[in-house]
Specification:
This protein is of the alpha+beta class and 275 residues long. Among the domains are: 104 residues; 80 residues, Elongation Factor Tu (Ef-tu), domain 3. It is 52% helix and 18% strand. It is built from seven helices and ten strands. Strand 5 and strand 6 form a beta hairpin.
Length: 275
């Protein structure tokens, strides 16, 4: 009964402003698509297979969409026809008659409907009263279990990723597709070429005593004879290593300049002393 009355009210009031705006926008969109389809069709209309081309189908579809949008707009502007109003009034009268019959006879259908209403009201009362503590506890346990599963999945995903401790470029890849690597086995070699470091390999104990951190040095390269770079001592290893009977100390030098021709593992000559 309420649905029939609401429908009659909508018919009598006519279209809303939002409906008219939406219909107008739909009509403008359909008109724009029709213009585009017409332009595309006109460019190929002289071809022999015009009936088989997609432009023909697109023009037909755009025309139908435009006519439907125009008809919808006309229906909204013209309002409900007498037949539509009469049909809505008839629906109200029919619903009222059915309601009166059910109320007077109290048929099993009405009893069933009343039971459904009572059940729905009981469910509403439970919702309004709030969830019971045991239901909340179960839900909280489910959330905790789901959170733990998510954390485990994130940890497992992190175990499948290779991450470098610094930015750089991949110099070598030692892994092949499908190959498995154990702990401690390098799969990828990454180089940081933003700043070069040069390590000495032949400074004896007599040479290293005269070297201090911050000392200026000159660096030349066997592969690039015309290149000479200035640099400074940045580290001195305090423990010597045996090199064919001699004790040598590793000194790390960092050039203060760069050159695009420099490559990893090139041989360099470091000149200590005043430059």
């Amino acid at each position: 009964m309420a649905q029939a009355q609401a429908n009659l009210q909508r018919v009598l009031e006519g279209p809303t402003e939002d409906q008219l705006i939406a219909a107008e926008a739909n009509l403008r969109n359909a008109e724009a698509r029709l213009k585009n389809a017409t332009s595309a069709y006109n460019r190929v209309k002289d071809q022999n297979d015009i009936g088989m081309r997609p432009e023909s189908l697109q023009l037909e579809q755009a025309t139908i969409a435009y006519e439907q949008a125009q008809a919808q707009m006309n229906d909204l502007k013209n309002g409900a026809t007498p037949a539509t109003v009469a049909g809505a009034r008839a629906s109200v009268s029919q619903a009222a008659a059915q309601l009166e019959t059910l109320q007077n006879s109290m048929t099993p259908q009405l009893a069933g409907a009343q039971a459904q209403v009572d059940q729905a009201q009981a469910q509403l009362d439970l919702l309004l009263a709030g969830a019971r503590p045991e239901v909340i506890a179960v839900a909280q346990a489910d959330v905790a279990a789901a959170t733990a599963a998510l954390q485990s999945a994130l940890v497992a995903l992190a175990d499948t990723e290779l991450r470098t401790p610094f930015g750089g470029i991949v110099a070598t890849v030692n892994a092949a597709i499908g190959e498995q690597f154990g702990p401690g086995v390098p799969a990828v070699t990454v180089a940081d070429t933003s700043q070069w470091e040069i390590e000495t390999s032949d400074l004896t104990e007599f040479d290293v005593v005269g070297v201090e951190i911050g000392d200026a040095v000159g660096v030349t390269f066997d592969a690039i004879p015309d290149l000479r770079l200035a640099g400074n001592v940045v580290r001195i290893r305090p423990i010597g290593e045996d090199n064919r009977g001699d004790t040598v100390y590793k000194v790390v030098v960092m050039p203060t300049e760069d050159d695009p021709r420099l490559l990893w593992n090139m041989t360099a000559v470091v000149e200590f002393g005043p430059q």
